[in-house]
Design brief:
single chain, alpha/beta, Rossmann fold, 10 helices, globular
Length: 273
């Protein structure tokens, strides 16, 4: 109730422009994500592109208490991220970059860490968000396929129940589909996908929204929720969406046709015994 009251206060104080509603969208979206977690019986959340842990903290506030495994490659961020995770026994952090193949990559780091990316920024992004998107330096990072490190980072953790469904959240500033491709080997375990989609790309090589959505849908997922993240300052057109996708209903149900009997909290309690 407190989080909704604060969000409503900020919403009411904002001018009536295209971005006013974005003050409430994160709360509405987290409720959609939490509902998907509950329905699918998710036993672990994979938080790829953790930044400072905003998504993980939001899920905790929404009611999720199960294991969270965060991945954040920016070496200037692990300290605050690790500090937040250190206060939560069911939250781990790894400083990997993820992609479609193992190797080395270059992370371009602008003034705002929110726009750090392995891809080059486009003129529109610099026009819309200003100097925050202009890289000030670059750093070499190690890149891994998620399905190649899943066993050591996720399934080896006692809190994670083997074969339990997982949620895969990806927010990688243009590299989302590369990371999704590098997760192919674990997709049978992934019941819910949370991903950012671009209608007006901010980074080079990012496919348009319809093509990106098609690729994820072809892997067996269907939209459960879609909320705007940012709008064009002049026209009000949506720049980016956050999407929540779930596997087809036949794969979310048990053999007798019922919903999964164990929720994520039940799975965690069983693992702790």
């Amino acid at each position: 109730m407190i989080r909704w009251a604060r969000a409503l206060a900020v919403y009411s104080a904002k001018p009536r422009d295209f971005e006013r509603g974005t003050r409430l969208y994160p709360l509405l979206f987290l409720d959609v994500v939490y509902a998907a977690i509950s329905r699918a019986g998710v036993g672990c959340v994979l938080d790829v592109g953790a930044h400072r842990g905003e998504f993980a903290i939001g899920l905790r506030r929404a009611g999720y208490s199960g294991p969270i495994v965060s991945f954040e490659p920016n070496p200037s961020l692990p300290e605050p991220l690790h500090l937040r995770a250190s206060r939560d026994a069911a939250w781990r952090v790894y400083n990997y970059g993820l992609g479609s193949a193992d190797g080395e990559g270059t992370l371009h780091r602008p003034r705002s860490t929110s726009f750090a990316s392995m891809r080059d920024s486009l003129p529109y992004g610099r026009e819309r968000f200003g100097a925050d998107t202009v890289p000030s330096d670059a750093v070499s990072i190690r890149v891994r396929r998620l399905d190649g490190i899943f066993a050591e980072t996720v399934d080896s953790w006692p809190l994670v129940v083997r074969e339990a469904p997982v949620l895969l959240k990806i927010d990688a500033q243009g590299s989302d589909l590369d990371i999704f491709a590098g997760s192919a080997g674990i997709l049978p375990r992934v019941a819910v996908v949370v991903m950012e989609f671009s209608l007006i790309p901010l980074y080079a090589g990012v496919p348009p929204f319809a093509e990106a959505l098609r690729q994820v849908e072809e892997a067996g997922y269907h939209l459960a929720g879609l909320v705007p993240v940012a709008h064009d300052n002049v026209t009000g057109a949506v720049v980016e969406f956050d999407g929540c996708l779930v596997r087809g209903s036949s794969q979310q149900r048990s053999p007798d046709g019922d919903r999964p009997s164990n929720t994520h909290n039940q799975r965690v309690r069983a693992a702790r015994r």
